Structures are given as structure tokens and as C-alpha cells.
Amino acid sequence: MSEAEAIEICREAILVMLKIVGPIMLAGLVVGVIVSLIQAVTQIQEMALTFIPKMVVVFAVTIWLFPFMMATLGGFTHSLTDRIVQIGLSNG
Prior knowledge:
With 92 residues, this protein is mainly α. The protein has one domain (3-91). 92% of the residues lie in helices and 0% in strands. It has helices at residues 3-42, 47-91. The longest helix has 45 residues, at 47-91. The chain is elongated.
């Protein structure tokens, strides 16, 4: 395996990680900003008010996107095992 192949595998792994985690983090960020705006307008400074909605939304988005996340991870795993086989065949 050359350095370029190893770098390409790492690049793909990072992109898969961003595809899987990005929507969940974005949903948490949006909910956090909305709750912060509500707290600033109403001057309610309750810590549970920031934590509970984010936790519920992150959980719901994770459940909703679970099939997409597994398909993305499965596709990456499949391409990675194909590369391992190709490396084994070329070295053998």
C-alpha cells in the first residue's frame, strides 16, 4: 500500500464520519441557538432548559437518520474490504 492510498482511506474515513455525525451536531446546534434566544428574551436562566431539548432532538435525529448512517457506514466498510482484498492480491 502506498502513502497515497493510505491518505485516501483516511480522507474517506473522515468524510464518512462527517456525514454520520454532521446532521446530529447541526440539529443540536440549531436547538441550542433557539433555546438560547428564548432564554435571552424571557430572561429565564435554567440549565435544564438548555439540556433537555437538545438531548431529545439529538436522540430523535439519531433514530430518524439511523438507516442512513448504517448505509453510509456499510458502504465505507464494503469499499474498505474491497481495497484490502486488492492489496492482498497485488502483494501475493
